[in-house]
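ok so for the tutorial part 2 we go from a plain amino acid sequence to predicted structure tokens. step 1 is just haveing the sequence, like this:
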Amino acid sequence: GLPGRRHSTGLARSWHLGVDVLWLVNGILFYVLLFATGQWTRIVPTTWDVFPHALSTLIQYLSLNFPHHDSWVTYNGLQMLVYFVTVFIAAPAAVLTGLLQSPLISLRLHAASSRLANVEVARSVHVLVLGWFVVFTIFHVTLVFATDVLANLNHITTGLNDDSWMGVALFAVGVAVIAAVWVAATPITVRRPQLIQRIGLALLGPFRRLL
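step 2 — the prediction. this is what the tokens look like for a chain of 211 residues:
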């Protein structure tokens, strides 16, 4: 539910599912660009050597003796594995387990009576995937700042390999906008619940008809 509000699960679900649609569209676009540009080769392991390399890199990070950082050219073994899990395992698992929590979809797929794919299992896995995203974000942002914040933020936000402050500025604006929306979400929802529901239904409409 909404923070500090009782009986607000439905409104919170409108936010959750509406934003999920935007997240899903963004993800589909990301997949298309990933394979259309050949960038998938950067995050898909092709040899078993990635596992000892990832372990070696993890030990270096834990010892605070950071390995050579050259993500503009290639990712190290640990980055490759973590990005692969996030993009190709965690994200699809979030979508699948979210859909399986719908009683109608669960019944239609005969998942309601399944030991491996019932609603309770889907909900548990969904929460575990959320945990993965939270931990990934914390460590990812921490290492972005700890290794080479100017170059890293430019790589992420502008696609340029330089040490200007543009990436930092764009990152700060993005965080400020997200924080402002987050803070404003609850009072706006409480005052205009019908509007939030209509927006949620409009975003979900095409997917509801598809399913």
